[in-house]
Amino acid sequence: MMEVKLTTDGIRYIALFERLTGAVARDCIVDEENDRIIFVVKNGDMGLAIGKNGNNINRVKKSIGKHIEIVEHSDDLNEFVANALQPVAVKKVQIVSKDCKRTAYVEVMSKDKGLAIGKNGRNILKAKVLVQRHYGLEDVIIQ
Length: 143
Description:
Strand order of the largest sheet: 1-2-3
Strand content: 25-35%
Mean pLDDT: 92
Radius of gyration: 15 Å
Oligomer: single chain
Number of domains: 2
Shape: globular
Low-confidence stretches: none
Largest sheet: 3 strands, mixed
């Protein structure tokens, strides 16, 4: 696992997120291009982060004024890749090392490929950024 470096804004957003939800955030990525903030929460804190009927996450969204996405952390790389692509059901994750570069090949149902990639590649970009920051993988490829 790699050391994650946070920006000043990321630290502020984490403090706000933790205060409003009670969940522990391990990482925060401010994605200005897609007008969203991605939080990686401690394993098991996803329900707490969302809250009953989405109340907690909606409070955070209202306070920050941007779209909020939450990914549950996992010490298992395959599970983390699958979590980063939620709500897509991942059939299989295969990590391939070639020329000192590690790539995750993710198999999803053919009907879910569009959702896994997302509009303008938003979802696959989120997964790539997260696995790069947390596990040092070069790429994520949807199959």
